[in-house]
C-alpha cells in the first residue's frame, strides 16, 4: 500500500471520517547559501520528496496528531499550546502563530508521514509547517495567500520552535513550480521563476549521513558575525542596512586587515550573491557548465571562508569534482552535515553512483545515500 493510502486508512481508523490530503515538498537550493538572512538572493526549488498530511476539522478545540513514520501521537488543545521539544512543535508552532495573527481556528485531526529523508538538510520541518498552515487555511476558509502562509511558517520556526532560520526553506516548499528554480530576493521578497533546462542532466543529492550538533550554534554565530560586519561598516557608511548593500571594495578597505574573520564571513556572502546573479545569467543562456563551475566556487567559499562545511561534505564534493560526468557540486543548506547537490550527466549516473559510494566509504568509513530528485510544484491540495 502506498503512503497516501496508509495515511488515509490510518486517519479513517482513528477519526472515522474522510480526510483532505495535502502534499508539502522538501527543497533544494542550487546556489545562494547563507544569503537569505543577509537580505541576499537564493535559488531554491521544491522537490519530489514531501510530507503528506491527512487532515480534517473537529467540532471541539482539540488537536489530535499522528506522526505515522514515528508511530507517535499527540493530543492537546488550541487553548494550551506549549513547547514539547518534539516533532509536535512544528504543528503547534503554526497553530500558535495563526492564532496570534488573529485567525479563528477550531480543533483538527492530522495524520502525516513523508518521503523526505530526515536530517538530510532537505527542510522536512519547513515542509511540515507549510503543510499544517495550508491545512488550516483550507479547513477553516481563512483566505490567506501563499506568501502569508510562508511568513507564518517562518514565525512558527523562529518564535515557537526557536530556530532563527531565514525564509528560504518555507518559501521554496510553498512557492515551488515544476521544472523551475525560484530566484528570490530575500530583501523585497520579489521573486521570478527561471526554467531549469536539465535535458540529459540529473539533480543528485549525496547524503553525508552526518548531522553535527554544531549546526544550530554555528548558524547563530554566523548570523552574529555578519551583523557585526554590518555594524562595523555602518560607522563608515551609515546608509548600509545589511550585507546586501556592501561591496568588496568596502570590505577590502575597512575590514580586511582589522577584522580578518569578520572579513572572510562578509566577503563570502557578498561574493555568493554575485555568484547567484552570474549563475542565473548562465542558466538563462543555457550554459549549465558555467553554472556548475559557480557551484564549485560556492562550495569553496562555504568551506574556507564561511566555514560551515565539514570533512565529509568536502570529500563528497572532491570525489564529484574529479568525475568527468559531474558538472557541478557543493554542500547545500545550513552545513556541518546533510547533503551535497550535484549536477550529473545522465549517462554517467551509474558510474558516478558506484564511484562515490565506494570512495566515500573508503575515505570516511560511512555509507552515502544518493537521491535523484525532480523539481515539483509547492505545497498543494491533492484531494
Ligand atoms: C538553513 C536555513 C535557511 C538558510 C540555509 C543556508 O537551511 O533554514 O534559512 O539560511 O540554512 O542557506
Task: Tell me what the structure shows.
By secondary structure, this protein is of the alpha+beta class. The protein folds into 2 domains: 3-197 and 377-381, Ribosomal Protein S5, domain 2 (2-Layer Sandwich); 201-373, GHMP kinase, C-terminal domain (Alpha-Beta Plaits), CATH 3.30.70.890. It is built from 11 helices and 13 strands. It has helices at 3-15, 88-100, 124-139, 146-161, 168-175, 214-234, 248-254, 260-284, 288-305, 311-321, 349-364; strands at residues 20-29, 41-42, 44-57, 62-67, 72-77, 108-114, 180-185, 191-195, 201-211, 326-331, 337-345, 369-373, 380-381. Strands 5-4-6-3-1-13 form a 6-stranded mixed beta sheet. A 4-stranded antiparallel beta sheet has the order 10-11-9-12. A hairpin with a 5-residue loop joins strand 7 (180-185) and strand 8 (191-195). Helix 10 runs antiparallel to helix 11. The longest helix is centred in the C-terminal third of the chain and has 25 residues, at 260-284. The radius of gyration is 21 Å and the shape is globular. The model has no long low-confidence stretch (mean pLDDT 97). The structure holds alpha-D-galactopyranose.
